[in-house]
Amino acid sequence: METLLDYNFYISPSDMIEYCFCKRFIYYMKCLLIPQFEEKRYKVQKGRNLHEYKVQSNVDYLRKRLKVIDKRINVELHSQTHRLKGVVDEILFFEDGTASPLDYKYAKYNNFIYNTYKTQMTMYALMIEETFNVKVHKAYIVYFLSNNKLVELKITNRLRDTLLNDLSKYQQIVSGYFPPKTASNKRCEDCCYRKICIM
Ligand code: SF4
C-alpha cells in the first residue's frame, strides 16, 4: 500500500516541465539531489503565479458552451499506475460521461500549444481517468493574456505514448542514467547547475 511518503517520489507536471527544459537538470536535482536556486533558474515558470490571477477569471460562459454538468476545482490527483501526482485547476464533467482537465495559463495563445502544456494536460488526463474511472478525450487550456481564450487539446494515443515514453526516461534518469545536455545552449545561461555541468 502506498503511503504519503511514497507520493514524494511521484512525478508531477512541474517535474515534467523541468524534464522538457533539460533532462540533465533532472539528473542533478532528482538523482544527485543537488538543491537548485529558484531565483537563478530558467524563466519558464512564470505561470506559477497564475493562481493569483485565475480567481479573477470568469469562464462560466465557456463551461455552458461545453455542456458541462459538473465541475471540481483545485483537485489533487494521483495515479498509482503511472506514479504521477498533481493538482489540476478544474475538472469538467460532461453529459456523455467523459471528463476533461481545464488549466489556466498566464500566457498568450500564439496559435499553437506548447509541448510542455500538452505533456501536462496528458498527465492530468491519465490521473483523472484513474481517479474517477472516466474517459478523457479532450483537455482545455484558458489563456489569461488572450482574453481568457479557451483552447481545446485532443488527448490522442500519440500524446499518451509520448508521455509514457518520457516518464520511462525520467525514471531511468532518477535511477542513475546520466543524460546528454540540452540541445539548446541558451538554456544553460540561466541554469543554476551550469557551473557543475560537464559540457
Ligand atoms: S547547464 Fe545546460 S545542460 Fe547542464 S543541466 Fe543546466 S541546462 Fe542542462
Short description:
With 199 residues, the chain is an alpha+beta fold. 37% of the residues lie in helices and 21% in strands.
Describe it.
This protein has 199 residues and is an alpha+beta fold. The chain has a single domain, classed as Lambda Exonuclease, Chain A. Helices cover 37% and strands 21% of the residues. The protein contains eight helices and five strands. A five-stranded mixed β-sheet has the order 1-2-3-4-5. A hairpin with a 4-residue loop joins strand 2 (84-94) and strand 3. It is globular and about 55 Å long. The N and C termini lie far apart (42 Å). Iron/sulfur cluster binds next to helix 3 and helix 8.
CATH class: Alpha Beta
What is the distance, rounded to the nearest whole angstrom, between the alpha carbons of the first and last residues? 42 Å
How much helix is in the residues? Answer: 25-40%
Count of helical regions: 8
What is the fold-level CATH name, i.e. the topology?
A: Lambda Exonuclease, Chain A
Number of strands: 5
Instruction: State mean pLDDT (0 to 100 scale).
Output: 86
Estimated structural class:
alpha+beta
Report the sheet-strand fraction.
Answer: 15-25%
- State the low-pLDDT regions, or none: 42-46
CATH architectural grouping: Alpha-Beta Complex
How do the strands line up in the largest sheet?
Answer: 1-2-3-4-5
The general outline is globular
Roughly how many Å is the radius of gyration? 17 Å
